[in-house]
Amino acid sequence: MPDPITHASLSLIFARHCFRDQKSIFVVAALSPDIDVVVGGLFILLSGPWPASLPDFFEKSMIFHPGLSAAIWFVPIYGLFLSWIFRKMPRIAAGANFNQIYTLVLVGMVLHLGLDFLQTGNRPLWPLDVTAGLNLLPYTPAGRFWTMTAAIGLSSLDAFMVYRRRRSCGHPKK
Fold first, then answer.
1. Can you tell me whether residue 126 is helix, strand or coil?
2. Can you say how many angstroms the Cα of residue 22 is from the centroid of all Cα atoms in its chain?
3. CA-based, 20 to 30 A from 15: which of 7, 53, 111, 125?
4. Do 10 and 108 touch, CB atoms closer than 8 A?
5. Mean pLDDT score of the chain
6. What are phi and psi of 85, to 5 degrees?
7. Contact (Cβ atoms closer than 8 angstroms) between residue 47 and residue 27
């Protein structure tokens, strides 16, 4: 799986251009298939023994990953649950109806799974032990570093372009 920074950066770029009013819903939905890593971290902290170092903790927190939340068949069910939660938050929903929110959530989760599919070792048919992936992005610390660096670079470039566009619209040339 690409790291959370890559998922967040690319989903924010996508949301900025396609879903301007509901960016936060889209980005949270795009990050949500990795909730099993958070659950694994809590499990490690509560069940003990505590990891010896921070890298050890990160490695052990992957105990449930990839799992249920990244399974293709679970995405529509998980999407319904997330959409229901977002709909209960009127400030975040920003007047969007349930169908619009559900579509945003599904597209965000599919973007996440698509990025994960660029690597290998994913289990899209969980609980079956079938792994899939294109093996285009290396799943090594160096590979994750370069993926993260590229995502941050793309985000910076996108932010600069948005800034320039807004500035040029507010100050027309003479």
1. coil
2. 15
3. 125
4. no
5. 82
6. -65, -45
7. no
For the packed helices 23-31 and 75-87, what is the interaxial angle rounded to 10 degrees? 140
* Distance separating alpha carbons of residues 118 and 137, to the nearest angstrom: 6
Instruction: Give the whole-angstrom CA distance, residue 155 versus residue 160.
Output: 9
Residue range 36-64, pLDDT digits in tens: 888 888 998 898 788 888 888 888 887 77
Identify the residue whose tokens are 């109806």.
Answer: 97
Residue type, 114: G
Please name the residues in contact with 165: beta carbons below 8 A apart, sequence gap of 6 or more: none
Burial of 11 (0-12, 13-18, 19+ CB in 10 A): buried
Torsion of CA 155, 34, 25, 132, to 10 degrees: 80
Spatial separation of the C-alpha atoms in residues 108 and 95, rounded to whole Å: 19
Backbone angles phi, psi at 96, to 5 degrees: -80, 145
Angle between helices 4-18 and 23-31 in degrees, nearest 10: 150
Alpha-carbon Rg for the chain in angstroms: 18
Tell me the C-alpha distance between 103 and 165, whole Å.
28
Quick: pLDDT tens for 96-114.
Answer: 888 899 999 999 999 988 8
* Cα gap 131→135, rounded to integer Å: 11
Contact between 87 and 93 under an 8 Å Cβ cutoff? The reply is: yes
